[in-house]
Design a protein that fits this description.
Elements (H helix, E strand, L loop, with lengths): L3 H9 L4 E2 L3 H22 L2 H22 L13 H20 L3 H21 L2 E2 L1 H22 L5 H21 L3 H4 L2 H22 L7 H18 L1
Parallel strand pairs: 1-2
Helix pairs in contact: 1-6, 2-3, 2-5, 3-4, 4-5, 6-7, 6-10, 7-9, 9-10
């Protein structure tokens, strides 16, 4: 996952490609079992986590088998392509080892590196997918969730946090403006995206209220609405 400023610059740069080549499509298909593995690792059930990680590994192995030695345009100019594909496989192997040791939280943390590695592959070839917009939102959301309560302890904490929430609001709007046409025609996506946007609006409203805001519920809503959208369309 890129740093927010760098990823925003990448997403807004002119002339970027969108998912239209066979490798990008295959990588996006492999992302679905990755997302499922992320959730199963949070379930606390070792066997479910093992099965989900195995499926994600197998899906990625299929991508490597098909494209590892013959990357299509525009990835054919990337000298690090094969090494990056192998890196993702190595990450999955580390995750699987942690699952076997029943260290599910550690496995979950390591698995996040898969998303970052995939994003790096796309970035080097100037390919942007909806997943990159989801990733950008997630990075900023985590910053708000983690740093928000700490910022409120400062004298101008509400103003500082509002600035961070403003960036989150912008990224939430991009999840709508940059969504694929098929998503925009999907009632479930529209409902989940609207709920995500509303959670950010509710957070802004809470910060505008006089006095010390109680953000526990609204921050929880921000996280939950993102998780639901990510699980189906991330």
């Amino acid at each position: 996952m890129l740093k927010p400023a760098l990823l925003l610059a990448a997403l807004m740069a002119a002339g970027l490609a969108h998912a239209a080549d066979p490798f990008t499509e295959a990588m996006q298909q492999a992302y679905a079992p990755y997302r499922n593995a992320m959730f199963k690792l949070n379930s606390g059930d070792q066997e479910q986590a093992r099965q989900a990680v195995t499926k994600a590994q197998q899906s990625w192995a299929g991508v490597v088998a098909q494209f590892g030695t013959k990357p299509p345009v525009p990835y054919d100019q990337d000298a690090a392509f094969a090494n990056s594909l192998a890196e993702v496989g190595n990450i999955y192997a580390k995750v699987a080892a942690e699952v076997e040791a029943n260290q599910l939280p550690q496995a979950h943390t390591i698995l996040k590196q898969v998303s970052r590695a995939m994003a790096d592959i796309r970035q080097r070839s100037n390919v942007v997918t909806f997943t990159d917009h989801i990733n950008a939102y997630h990075v900023q959301m985590e910053k708000v969730l983690i740093e928000g309560p700490k910022l409120l302890q400062a004298a101008d904490g509400k103003l500082q946090l509002m600035a961070q929430v403003g960036a989150l609001d912008y990224l939430a709007q991009r999840l709508l403006s940059q969504a694929p046409a098929s998503y925009l025609q999907n009632p479930e996506f529209k409902a989940l995206q609207a709920a995500l946007t509303q959670s950010v609006v509710d957070l802004k409203v809470a910060l505008l209220q006089p006095g010390e805001p109680d953000l526990k519920a609204v921050l929880g809503s921000v996280k939950t609405s993102y998780s639901k959208l990510f699980a189906k369309f991330g």
